[in-house]
């Protein structure tokens, strides 16, 4: 008998249909992965099981958990079930814990809510649960507060809360999306271990095919509130039926075609760059400390080259990016673009700046919502001494928009009228408009769904061919770097630990950290 | 935490120094000569000069400022021109009315606002919520002196449940004194309670939509439990800020209400001192109030740390 | 009351939809209607009032509402309706200009502080704000009017000064979130300086915040003006003002309640209208916060 | 506080509205608007001081009676020498100050010499200007020598500024006054109240009350409310005449309307153009409708006056007809004077309601004849500084409450800056004249002169309105001087 059986589930919020005819089941000890892009309804399916739906939600169909028909239970009965029979882990570990209560307290609460035990007893069991998620008390006392822990450690606390009562079902909603790749690998391993140890069933929700395919026994693919494909893993990947799932898989492994014409002249030369920040004084009259974010980094980017810069959060890649863009002055070393320093004296060098542009990660925060597309796209003209006006300006806008696959008429629209992918195209158009030689792509595709991401990668490859652009591709996502760059740099704690041709770095990593990174990255099963 | 406290203390001291200069200069340019006021219309020039000398009004600006600040630092607030009693003593007496009144009003406002705000937030969108919000909307909009006037007419003149004003003195009995502070406290508390209830509600709604409340619900806590055990304490920070602001406002801000109920409190003292050009009282009391506000804010900030461990562990 | 977050700001550029939503918001429509009534009354009073408010007619003093004087007459026989109309003018003008002063000084200061976040300048501006906040506002208003004499202008200054830190803080906190935005970074990459970015990118995106806060400060300004003129420190006779009407009617409240009732209601309804409108605007600009505060 | 509260307080409970009847009440609470700045009547002009201490705590050689007559005080009798230059006062025997020290001739010498000394802070130094010598003949006799004969000398000695103080207690007089009166100072809660208690060793007729509390309630509304709520038993100089019909109609209260020495005038700056032209001043006088002011500002309480003299004084001449309400005439006079209309002038108004309300009415009346009076409401401090001393005003309204003060018109530097040599000579003559008939004639003449010159616009005599509980008896109905003499006050059986 299934532990969880969802049959013909329909869900509406207000008048909006969210789920249609969703059926799936989880057996004890089984890991079921639910995959879908944003808006596919995968999280809402999980919340329906927990019955933690937003106001105005109406569910029809049946959801049976361990013999209980969830949809007909009263609220107190549901409370008795939640945390006890079914635990849940959430996406954002930074905010999932109450900031003002200690971790021991929060884990113990799960126990206290459901069982009549003393506070000491509950704390003892909380200690055990924390030890199980590899937060032993000697290093992580129960009195710690969430803000004293890293993201990965907090996620472990959330997991400890979810499994404290050894529930039969664990629901993990994008449990690693907000984490670095190495941390992600550890958390996934932990989850798998716990499931196997306790014989729990797990419903694992993710947008990342690779993450789920590594772990799941069965896979459910969802799109716009419907299940399009179900099957055992990894067999399913070789026998996909629905066109959507096929294209999704293809997009996940998509490698754009690129013709590489790298010249031997360095376009960007970074030598011995150092950048440190002051940290607050430890004592009132003590010296302020210093944190070295970038510790003597050197590399070249050749004309026409696509160079990757890989590293986890906090490794200094953002600082380095800002230094290259001339937004911050460096304390040591030199950054030259086409032989000229980006900083002359203490002010950024306009002549150099106009040769490079940048595309940011967040398609929603990259544009002033009050300006129209034409004004947004023209912003870099500020760098020109004689910016084009009138007809010439119109022509430039039109050219930039069409070259990224938009139409000239789009210039009159406001940014909110575009989707995430289209916005990223506009961001690229903005970068192209002054015909730079180098474009920095700062996590430029990380926030996009896989299919859109594939399209943007194609666009980038095209543009580089068309305009002879060089790219500096900054990302934490190894799979993306692997398909779009010629050479790549691996950065850790302010230093470049390894660099070389991309394929070589990936297939034969030299530095232990690189090896760790590559091993941690989830892989899709080889396609038949 | 210590470093944080010390830096805050330092900036507190700088603020006070700047405030003292501002106040002194403002009071200095106040037109009207206290000596003339004291001696009246038929006073002769030599008598006036003698009195001014006596009051120490003839020194240079700088020396008067220094002696004022120096005096305050040693607890000597000078002597009132009009009453000829030490300002510190007068403030001490007035504080025995203003402080209890402020506390009374604040207690009332908190006792009304907390349940109302929590109730409205927990029943968001319901008739109860709309009702509470409507009443608070009125409470914010009603001029409190007008409300005080209406209360006097109803409760003092017509029903004669309360005296129309005045203060019998604590030595005449605690309950009697509290009774005489009741109408003023209600008048002061009404708008404050309305504001506080609204802040409580909105802050609680904010926290209720936080992820950790959802986590708590996933643990099996009921809505109610999640609200009381997780949301409430987190929602308190903005509420504490408002309470701090309100307390310092109530301490001085009762001027108009103290006038309506002829309570001899601090606010009324300032008002009278300004009209009587009792400069030393004005200076010292305004300075004290500024100090009180800054000190209360400081305490509020420190009290955040009690609520929030993130602040307790050195920022 | 005022925790609007800049990053929740909706895009503009959809005026039709905004109007549609505006008309559906109960509090906005009610608030705007109330406010409009008083603004209209104030405007009409420039051209016409039922009676001359400076004319004294002792023979007709303290008459209750009648066909001749819908709201009755005061102790000098003046028509209360006419006085409330002219009084609206004073209240609204004082509060409006005081908000203007607060914005004119506060917004640039806030923008400046945010642009130089963490610098000495930021520290000075913010500490200065704290300091102004620390002064008991009514006492300072009394001092100002005691120094410069009571008048509507001095009431404006007294209220306006205390609006400055409100707007400075709001602008700064709103601007700080905006400075984190990638579009600001993009503008910096495009070589734009802090001043230019503040004007082009920050200011337009804090206007919603400012409008909402402005409405609230407006209503507080009306209350403050009423309080000041109640203690005799606002507009001087013969110009009628709501606060002074209340003060003058106080001793007569027990036998001529209409004299205190109508000006009090005028204050109450105007402030209520503005507050409702502020709430409505907040919801309108920021649907995520609908129903909050 | 009242007895009602004391009992409730003793009971320790919150009995709302309980009104406990008492066999015989022996204390009283008096409300008044102004709080005295301190309690030394000999070094300040503030009427509020006299209001509390006059005849209650301090006594002078002579004293005013309720009708304004001058009678014996500490001096039981006095003789005047033939030439009118020497006064011999015979003091009451066995008089003790509240601190137990004896009051004798030396104290009188001390008091008078202190008041007339070079460095004296006495606000009415002029009262003592004529004294050349004060001698204690024996313990109970004092001889005062004057430079000129002065028939009004006993009158001058009745003023609150001339009370007898003791050298032993003079240092603390401002906060703990020690006098010889029927009441002794007990307690002062600044900003709220002053409490007096009965002097058990009073030399004369003992007070009928055990305790008197003066409560300071400046706000007219609060004054009304405090009376209505019976927080106070008597309100002296009740500031809101509009409430009197209510008190009249309420059997719990009675209203006493008496006279004061307060000539309420629209003072005119005689040196400021165009008011230096008598025609313009006359125009102002004719533009004003006194009855409307009395009705509008005072709700009917007040006697119109046409010159600066109290109507209840036998020497008063009714000159109101000379400045009757006649706006047409006013306009004509303004035209004759060649004034360009509208004429904008500054009118400062001190806090009392007669001034604030009267000012608004006068401004409206003046507007009818083309004079735009710009109202400036000021506090007393600003009024004294700007208007009175600085003479920076055109018009102002104030009530002159000192008795027999027509002589201020002889002071060219006084704030209305009226400078008439003939009038000054006339006043000088009055000062030295001791024949009552001649004095009377000259006073009438003086009234006519200032009325003819339209120095100021004379409005009305300020009434003394006292609101009291029905059972309170023995209150002064009139105010010949500012005083709340409580010595004879008692509750009806």
Automatic annotation (TrEMBL), chain A:
GO terms for biological process: peptide transport; transmembrane transport. InterPro entries: AAA+_ATPase, ABC_transp_ATP-bind, ABC_transporter-like_ATP-bd, ABC_transporter-like_CS, Oligopep_ABC_C, P-loop_NTPase. It is found in: Cell inner membrane. Residues 4-249, 268-518 form the ABC transporter domain. GO terms for cellular component: plasma membrane. Pfam families: ABC_tran, oligo_HPY. It comes from the Bacteria. Keywords: ATP-binding, Nucleotide-binding, Transport. It is a peripheral membrane protein. GO terms for molecular function: ATP binding; ATP hydrolysis activity. The keyword Iron-sulfur does not apply. Its main location: membrane. SMART domains: AAA. Belongs to the ABC transporter superfamily. NCBIfam families: PRK10419.1, PRK11308.1. This is Peptide/nickel transport system ATP-binding protein. It comes from Pseudooceanicola nitratireducens.
UniProtKB/TrEMBL annotation, chain B:
Signal peptide: none annotated. Residues 95-300 form the ABC transmembrane type-1 domain. Keywords: Cell membrane, Membrane, Transmembrane, Transmembrane helix, Transport. SUPFAM superfamilies: MetI-like (SSF161098). Pfam families: BPD_transp_1, BPD_transp_1_N. The chain crosses the membrane at residues 9-30, 95-121, 141-161, 181-200, 235-257, 278-300. The keyword GTP-binding does not apply. One of its GO terms (cellular component) is plasma membrane. GO terms for molecular function: dipeptide transmembrane transporter activity. The keyword Membrane applies. Belongs to the binding-protein-dependent transport system permease family. This is Peptide/nickel transport system permease protein. The lineage of its organism: Bacteria, Pseudomonadati, Pseudomonadota, Alphaproteobacteria, Rhodobacterales.
TrEMBL record, chain C:
Residues 88-278 form the ABC transmembrane type-1 domain. Keywords: Cell membrane, Membrane, Transmembrane, Transmembrane helix, Transport. Pfam families: BPD_transp_1. Its main location: membrane. GO terms for biological process: transmembrane transport. The keyword Transmembrane applies. It is found in: Cell membrane. It is a multi-pass membrane protein. The chain crosses the membrane at residues 27-48, 90-111, 259-278. One of its GO terms (cellular component) is plasma membrane. InterPro entries: BP-dependent_transpt_permease, MetI-like, MetI-like_sf. Belongs to the binding-protein-dependent transport system permease family. This is Peptide/nickel transport system permease protein. It comes from Pseudooceanicola nitratireducens. The lineage of its organism: Bacteria, Pseudomonadati, Pseudomonadota, Alphaproteobacteria, Rhodobacterales.
UniProtKB/TrEMBL annotation, chain D:
CDD domains: PBP2_NikA_DppA_OppA_like_6 (cd08494). Residues 70-397 form the Solute-binding protein family domain. Belongs to the bacterial solute-binding protein 5 family. The keyword rRNA processing does not apply. Transmembrane segments: none annotated. This is Peptide/nickel transport system substrate-binding protein. One of its GO terms (biological process) is peptide transport. It comes from the Bacteria. Residues 1-23 form the signal peptide. It is found in: Periplasm. Gene3D superfamilies: Dipeptide-binding Protein, Domain 1, Dipeptide-binding Protein, Domain 3, Periplasmic binding protein-like II. SUPFAM superfamilies: Periplasmic binding protein-like II (SSF53850). Keywords: Signal. InterPro entries: Peptide/Ni-bd, SBP_5, SBP_5_dom. It comes from Pseudooceanicola nitratireducens. One of its GO terms (cellular component) is outer membrane-bounded periplasmic space. The keyword Transport does not apply. GO terms for molecular function: peptide transmembrane transporter activity.
């Amino acid at each position: 008998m299934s532990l969880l059986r969802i049959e013909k589930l329909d869900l509406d919020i207000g008048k909006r249909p969210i789920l249609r005819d969703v059926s799936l089941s989880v057996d004890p000890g089984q890991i079921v992965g639910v995959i879908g892009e944003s808006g596919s309804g995968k999280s809402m399916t999980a919340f329906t099981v927990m019955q933690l739906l937003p106001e105005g939600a109406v569910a029809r169909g049946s959801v049976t958990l361990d013999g209980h028909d969830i949809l007909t239970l009263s609220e107190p009965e549901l409370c008795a079930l939640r945390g006890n029979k079914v635990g849940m882990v959430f996406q954002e570990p930074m905010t999932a814990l109450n900031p003002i209560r200690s971790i021991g307290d929060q884990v113990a609460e799960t126990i206290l809510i459901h069982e009549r035990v003393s506070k000491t007893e509950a704390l003892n069991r909380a200690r055990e649960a924390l030890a199980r998620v590899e937060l032993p008390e000697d290093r992580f006392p129960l009195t710690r507060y969430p803000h004293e822990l890293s993201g990965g450690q907090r996620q472990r606390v959330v997991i400890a809360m979810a499994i404290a009562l050894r529930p039969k079902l664990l629901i993990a909603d994008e449990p690693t999306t907000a984490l670095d790749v190495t941390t992600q690998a550890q958390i996934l391993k932990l989850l798998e271990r716990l499931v196997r140890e306790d014989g729990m069933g797990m419903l694992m929700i993710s947008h990342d095919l690779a993450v789920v395919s590594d772990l799941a026994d069965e896979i459910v693919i969802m799109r716009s509130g419907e299940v399009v494909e179900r099957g055992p893993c990894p067999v399913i990947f070789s026998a996909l039926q629905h066109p959507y799932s096929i294209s999704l898989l293809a997009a996940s492994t998509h490698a754009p075609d690129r013709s590489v014409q790298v010249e031997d002249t360095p376009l960007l030369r970074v030598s011995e760059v150092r950048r440190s920040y002051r940290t607050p004084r430890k004592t009132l009259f003590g010296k302020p400390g210093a944190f070295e974010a970038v510790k003597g980094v050197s590399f070249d980017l050749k004309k026409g080259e696509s160079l990757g810069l890989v590293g986890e959060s906090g490794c200094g890649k953002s600082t380095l990016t800002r230094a290259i863009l001339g937004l911050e002055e460096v304390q040591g070393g030199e950054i030259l673009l086409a032989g000229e320093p980006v900083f002359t004296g203490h002010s950024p060098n306009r002549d150099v700046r106009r040769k490079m542009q940048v595309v940011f990660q967040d398609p929603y925060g990259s544009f002033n919502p009050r300006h129209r597309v034409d004004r947004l796209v023209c912003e870099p003209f500020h760098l020109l001494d004689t910016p084009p006006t009138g007809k010439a300006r119109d022509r430039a806008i039109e050219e930039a928009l069409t070259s990224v696959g938009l139409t000239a008429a789009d210039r009159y629209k406001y940014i909110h009228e575009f989707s995430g992918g289209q916005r990223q195209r506009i961001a690229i158009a903005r970068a192209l408009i002054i015909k730079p030689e180098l474009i920095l792509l700062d996590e430029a595709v990380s926030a996009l769904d896989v299919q859109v991401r594939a399209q943007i990668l194609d666009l980038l490859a095209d543009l580089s061919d068309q305009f002879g652009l060089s790219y500096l591709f900054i990302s934490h996502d190894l799979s993306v770097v692997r398909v779009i760059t010629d050479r790549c740099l691996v950065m850790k704690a302010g230093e470049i630990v390894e660099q070389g041709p991309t394929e070589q770095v990936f297939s034969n990593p030299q530095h232990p950290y690189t090896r760790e990174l590559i091993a941690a990255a989830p892989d899709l099963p080889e396609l038949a | 935490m210590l470093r944080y406290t010390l830096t805050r203390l330092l900036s507190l001291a700088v603020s006070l120094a700047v405030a003292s200069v501002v106040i002194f200069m403002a009071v200095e340019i106040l037109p009207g000569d206290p000596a003339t006021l004291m001696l009246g219309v038929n006073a002769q020039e030599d008598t006036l000069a003698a009195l001014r000398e006596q009051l120490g009004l003839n020194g240079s600006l700088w020396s008067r400022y220094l002696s004022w600040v120096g005096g305050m630092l040693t607890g000597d607030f000078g002597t009132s021109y009009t009453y000829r009693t030490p300002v510190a003593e007068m403030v001490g007496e007035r504080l025995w009315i203003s402080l209890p009144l402020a506390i009374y009003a604040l207690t009332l406002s908190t006792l009304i606002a907390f349940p109302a705000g929590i109730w409205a937030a927990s029943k968001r969108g319901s008739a109860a919520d709309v009702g509470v919000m409507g009443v608070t909307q009125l409470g914010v909009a009603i001029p409190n002196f007008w409300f005080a006037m209406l209360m006097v007419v109803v409760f003092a003149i017509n029903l004669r449940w309360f005296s129309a004003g005045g203060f019998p003195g604590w030595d005449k009995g605690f309950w009697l004194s509290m009774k005489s502070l009741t109408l003023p406290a209600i008048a002061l508390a009404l708008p404050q309670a309305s504001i506080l209830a609204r802040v409580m509600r909105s802050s609680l709604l904010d926290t209720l939509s936080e992820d950790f409340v959802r986590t708590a619900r996933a643990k099996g806590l009921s809505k109610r439990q999640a609200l009381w055990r997780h949301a409430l304490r987190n929602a308190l920070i903005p509420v504490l800020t408002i309470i701090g602001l309100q307390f310092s406002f109530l301490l001085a801000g009762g001027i108009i209400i103290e006038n309506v109920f002829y309570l001899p409190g601090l606010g009324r003292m300032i008002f009278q001192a300004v009209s009587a050009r009792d400069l030393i009282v004005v200076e010292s009391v305004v300075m004290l109030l500024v100090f009180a506000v800054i000190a209360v804010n400081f305490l509020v900030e420190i009290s955040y740390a009690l609520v929030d461990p993130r602040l307790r562990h050195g920022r | 009351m005022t925790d609007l977050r800049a990053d929740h700001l909706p895009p503009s550029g959809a005026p039709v939809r905004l109007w549609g939503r505006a008309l559906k918001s109960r509090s906005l429509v009610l608030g705007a209607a109330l406010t409009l009534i008083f603004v209209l009354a104030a405007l009409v009073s420039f051209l016409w009032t039922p009676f001359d408010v400076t004319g004294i007619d002792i023979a007709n003093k303290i008459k209750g509402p009648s066909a001749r004087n819908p709201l009755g007459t005061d102790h000098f026989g003046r028509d209360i309706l006419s006085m409330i109309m002219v009084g609206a003018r004073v209240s609204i003008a004082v509060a409006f200009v005081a908000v203007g002063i607060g914005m004119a000084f506060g917004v640039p200061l806030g923008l400046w502080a945010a642009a130089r976040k963490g610098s000495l300048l930021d520290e000075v501006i913010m500490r200065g704000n704290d300091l102004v906040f620390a002064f008991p506002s009514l006492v300072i208003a009394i001092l100002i009017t005691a120094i410069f004499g009571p008048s509507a202008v001095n009431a404006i200054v007294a209220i306006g000064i205390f609006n400055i830190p409100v707007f400075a803080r709001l602008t700064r906190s709103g601007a700080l979130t905006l400075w984190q935005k990638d579009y600001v970074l993009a503008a910096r990459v495009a070589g734009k300086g802090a001043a230019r970015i503040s004007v082009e990118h920050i200011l337009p995106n804090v206007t919603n915040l400012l409008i909402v806060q402005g409405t609230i400060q407006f209503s507080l300004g009306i209350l403050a003006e009423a309080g000041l003129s109640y203690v005799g420190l606002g507009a001087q006779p013969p110009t009628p003002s709501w606060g002074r009407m209340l003060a003058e009617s106080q001793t007569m409240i027990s036998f001529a309640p209409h004299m205190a009732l109508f000006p009090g209601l005028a204050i109450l309804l105007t402030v209520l209208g503005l507050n409702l409108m502020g709430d409505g605007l907040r919801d309108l600009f920021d649907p995520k916060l609908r129903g909050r505060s | 506080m009242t007895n009602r509260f004391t009992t409730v307080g003793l009971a320790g409970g919150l009995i709302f509205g309980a009104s406990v009847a008492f066999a015989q009440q022996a204390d009283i609470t008096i409300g008044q608007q102004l709080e005295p700045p301190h309690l030394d009547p000999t070094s300040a002009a503030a009427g509020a001081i006299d209001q509390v201490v006059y005849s209650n705590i301090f006594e002078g050689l002579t004293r005013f009676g309720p009708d304004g007559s001058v009678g014996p005080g500490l001096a039981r009798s006095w003789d005047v020498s033939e030439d009118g230059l020497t006064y011999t006062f015979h003091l009451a025997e066995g008089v003790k100050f509240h601190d137990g020290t004896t009051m004798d001739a030396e104290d009188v010498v001390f008091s008078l010499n202190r008041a007339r000394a070079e460095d004296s802070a006495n606000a009415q130094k002029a009262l003592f200007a004529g004294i050349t010598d004060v001698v204690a003949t024996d313990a109970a006799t004092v001889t005062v020598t004057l430079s000129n004969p002065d028939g009004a000398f006993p009158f001058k000695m009745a003023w609150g500024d001339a009370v007898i103080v003791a050298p032993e207690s003079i240092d603390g007089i401002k906060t703990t006054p020690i006098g010889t009166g029927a009441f002794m100072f007990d307690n002062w809660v600044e900003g709220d109240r002053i409490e007096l208690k009965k002097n058990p060793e009073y030399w004369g007729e003992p007070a009928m009350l055990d305790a008197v509390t003066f409560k300071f309630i400046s706000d007219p509304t609060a004054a009304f409310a405090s009376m209505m709520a019976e927080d106070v038993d008597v309100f002296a100089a009740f500031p809101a005449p509009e409430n009197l019909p209510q008190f009249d109609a309420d059997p719990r209260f009675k209203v006493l309307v008496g006279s004061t020495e307060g000539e309420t005038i629209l003072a005119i700056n005689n040196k400021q153009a165009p008011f230096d032209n008598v025609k313009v001043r006359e125009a102002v006088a004719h533009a004003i409708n006194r009855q409307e002011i009395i009705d509008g500002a005072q709700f009917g309480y007040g006697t119109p006056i046409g010159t600066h003299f109290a109507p209840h004084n036998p020497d008063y001449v009714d000159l109101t007809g000379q400045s009757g309400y006649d706006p047409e005439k006013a306009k004509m006079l303004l035209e004759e004077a060649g004034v360009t209309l509208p004429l904008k002038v500054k009118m400062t108004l001190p806090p009392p309601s007669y001034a604030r309300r009267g000012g608004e009415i006068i401004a409206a009346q003046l507007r009818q004849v083309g004079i735009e009076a710009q109202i400036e409401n000021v506090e007393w401090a600003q009024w004294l500084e700007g208007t009175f001393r600085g003479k920076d005003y055109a018009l102002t309204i104030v009530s002159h409450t000192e008795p027999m003060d027509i002589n201020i018109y002889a002071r060219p530097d006084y704030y209305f800056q009226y400078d008439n040599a003939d009038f000054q000579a006339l006043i000088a003559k009055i000062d030295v004249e001791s024949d009552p008939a001649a004095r009377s004639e000259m006073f009438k003449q003086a009234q006519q002169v200032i009325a003819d010159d339209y120095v100021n616009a004379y409005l009305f005599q300020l009434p003394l309105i006292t609101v009291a509980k029905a059972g309170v008896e023995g209150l002064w109905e009139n105010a010949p001087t500012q005083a709340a003499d409580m010595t004879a006050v008692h509750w009806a059986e």
